[in-house]
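Field notebook, page 685. I keep forgetting to write these up properly, so this time I am using the form the group agreed on. The chain and the ligand, 2-acetamido-2-deoxy-beta-D-glucopyranose, are recorded exactly as supplied. Prediction of the bound pose follows.
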Amino acid sequence: MLLIQHCLFLLSTAAAALAAASGSYYSNDERDAAALLQLKTHIISATSSSDHPLSRNWTAAATAQVCSSWVGVSCGHRHRRVTSLNLANMGLQGTLPPHIGDIPVEIGNLKRLQKLKLWHIGLSGVIPPVIFNISTLRMVVLSENRLLGILPHNLCYHARGLEELYLHENQLHGGIPARIGNCTNLQIASLSYNPFSGSIPVTIGNCSVLRELYLADNYLTGNLPPTFGSHLPNLEWLSFAGNNLNGSIPPSISNASNLELLELSINSFSGCVPNTFGNLQMLQSLYIWGNSNLVVDPSFLTSLTSCKSLKILEISDTSFEGALPPSMGNLSSSFQYFLGSNCKIQGNIPVTIRRRKKSSEERNKVKEELLASLTWRRISLLELQRATNGFDDCNLLGKGSFGRVYKGVLADDTNVAIKVFSELEGEADDDDDDIFGNDTECEVLRNLRHRNLIKIISTCYTTGFKALVLEFMPNGSLHKWLYSHNYFLDIFKRLDILIDVASALEYLHQGYSIPVVHCDLKPSNVLLDGDLVAHIADFGISKFLGSGDSMTRTLTLATIGYMAPEFGMDGIVSTKSDVYSFGILVMEVFTRRNPTEESFQEGMSMKQWVTTLVPEGVTKYADANLLNCNSNRDFKSRESCISSIMKLALECCADTPRDRLAINDVLANLRKIKSQLQQDLCRRA
Ligand SMILES: *[C@@H]1O[C@H](CO)[C@@H](O)[C@H](O)[C@H]1NC(C)=O
Ligand SMILES: *[C@@H]1O[C@H](CO)[C@@H](O)[C@H](O)[C@H]1NC(C)=O
Ligand SMILES: *[C@@H]1O[C@H](CO)[C@@H](O)[C@H](O)[C@H]1NC(C)=O
Ligand SMILES: *[C@@H]1O[C@H](CO)[C@@H](O)[C@H](O)[C@H]1NC(C)=O
Ligand SMILES: *[C@@H]1O[C@H](CO)[C@@H](O)[C@H](O)[C@H]1NC(C)=O
Ligand SMILES: *[C@@H]1O[C@H](CO)[C@@H](O)[C@H](O)[C@H]1NC(C)=O
Ligand SMILES: *[C@@H]1O[C@H](CO)[C@@H](O)[C@H](O)[C@H]1NC(C)=O
Ligand SMILES: *[C@@H]1O[C@H](CO)[C@@H](O)[C@H](O)[C@H]1NC(C)=O
Ligand SMILES: CC(=O)N[C@H]1CO[C@H](CO)[C@@H](O)[C@@H]1O
């Protein structure tokens, strides 16, 4: 053992001596560490925070551990050089990262770097070309920062193996360099939401393994290259939407035979749409709307009947005029919707289309599903501004500590709620990773799907701005329904709402791959749709319980009055802390007393109050509106229902988590109570 260590020691001194002999002061991994320490100085000085995850982790004293214990760093097994740097979203305080300055040129010394992920960390300044001198580079993620300047022209000069380039949502200007054609391994290029200008380089057609190309919402002008698509057999997703491209759409696009999504909307294309789209057997979504001089002729529409995968076709605001060809009746059975507003459609509409000219509600459902599957496709700030009349106060639905919620109508008439996060610099603590704080969390939330959870339709982040686009709930919150005099929920409606909420909690606690704790359950976070079905909203402080944990700790406080004792006192959250809040919610719904009232804060709690009054009978505590009955028997049924409910609520609010019911038992009990009430009322009627 000793011998081996000795040999290793000799070897490493030999390496150091070699490095010294060759004139370099640093050994290789010290050089890597030095480059990272340069980056750290920018980050730490800008955040001026000793709490930053890097502040005590990356230190000059620990350069020998760069590969083994620096957070965000991975190295090759044999050469022990840094191969991956991932600071994505790190140290995000509040919702907007501070300006952290340029990427230091020393990054170019990471000679074996393959993956550089500096996503959403507040980078400003330019992209140093030296990054692309690293010949091993495969993935660059610099999206959602405040980067300025141009896309370096040495792209893929040395870094020939570049496969994925994500630069969306920055302030990069100038043209897309012709050299992009030398990126022969490029599979994904995401350059949307920048002010890039100039035309689309012809050479992009040389990127023959390209799978996804996003150039949406830039200032690109000129024509599409006449051969575009001829040599892009792998292209699946292509978006040029929201530019100022003109001229005709080249038929060569239909040679990209694997296209699934094609967005050419909101440009200035003219001429006829080529009638060769029938080649696109994989095409699912075709958006050509918003090109007012584009001629959509019957032969093009007929050609689409060969696109066996087509689901969505939007031709609104083009120069289409006349009758839809009867052949469109032959569109495949998977076709889901057609949108042709502001087109002068005359004559008979083929029955298939008539059936699939969707109501906006049905379309939203389709759209939502699709949006949920499109990872990088986001709604732009401009779209949201249009949707809310410039965030007009008339559209304001509510305010909270997180920011504001607006009602909006998207260009396709979808009603949405837009939650705009305000900057909380200095206010949020480290522990407060909101749903943007951590990409895993955001991903998981996107994947949560239950009829009683509010759905995330899309997200929008750009410099200084973050928003969530959510399903719109026309009937507002449960809080409003309980306390406003214009509304009334009868006893069955209240039971149904509680059953809805408990079903959502059951899904969060037990139905998903990892348990999710909502942490802030209260009537203002329970929203009602057009049919008064309840949906839980606001996952701002939710927690995920990883790998078999039954609880976690947080410093974030929820709402006094609803928080379980162990949560309020020690910051311990578990599924049982949600059960406690649910118990309080049940009490509130049936007593119409708000646990945050002053009288509850000073004197006895909601739970103590209910505990004291339960033995005295329902008339002492229940919402009197629920006891207005026609007959004594009716009263008896309601009385027994409400007292069972309160007993259940008290079991949810046991002092120790262990003694509380699990949510699936609560749900089963609620259902039983409801069916008992139904039976009683029937028998007596
Ligand atoms: C850095 O943080 C990681 C985990 O976050 C830890 O495993 C490691 O020991 C820390 N390294 C140092 C040098 O403090
Ligand atoms: C990057 O590569 C280019 C082209 O080989 C070269 O001219 C330039 O000096 C390199 N820059 C650095 C900092 O190595
Ligand atoms: C691609 O690289 C080759 C060799 O370095 C060079 O001759 C050519 O001009 C480059 N093409 C583009 C479009 O920059
Ligand atoms: C790359 O693009 C240029 C310009 O379109 C073309 O002349 C050249 O032949 C292409 N190279 C390859 C390898 O396809
Ligand atoms: C592109 O597709 C058209 C038919 O749409 C075909 O005539 C042409 O040969 C194709 N070109 C290439 C380069 O594949
Ligand atoms: C397209 O726009 C450019 C300016 O960006 C203009 O010079 C050109 O004439 C236009 N072409 C067509 C076909 O409209
Ligand atoms: C629909 O397709 C069938 C079978 O291919 C064909 O016979 C029929 O003419 C088509 N209908 C129209 C209106 O094009
Ligand atoms: C994100 O959250 C998940 C689940 O809470 C956790 O496992 C993961 O380590 C977090 N990632 C970062 C970068 O903080
Ligand atoms: C009482 C009330 O406002 N009910 C509304 C719930 O939402 C639906 C759909 O928007 C409306 O039709 C109801 O009037």
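OBSERVATIONS:
- The chain has a mean pLDDT of 82.
- The longest strand covers residues 403-409.
FOLLOW-UP: compare against the apo run.
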